[in-house]
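INFO batch 0412 | record 1 of 1 | parsing
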Amino acid sequence: MDGSCWELFGEKYHTNPRFLLGPGDVDMINLWRLFQGGGMGGGHLPDSGGVIDQPAIMMDAFTIMDKAERELKNATGRETRR
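INFO prediction complete | emitting tokens
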């Protein structure tokens, strides 16, 4: 096309990085969006119980995804797609 590339968090991609996502990655994004919830109530947790009952790696991943979304929003001045 025009020779330009996608750039995310300082890394350049010659193809749209969304094509690098596998089925498990998409599942993770869906879980994260459910966790974010919205409105007056909280979101949904992947496992039964409260936040303390969730796998630490899952909660850490949600934190990383939240940070990445904020960085994208700040860099573009736009909301990310939900």
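INFO post-check: The longest strand covers residues 6-8.
INFO record closed
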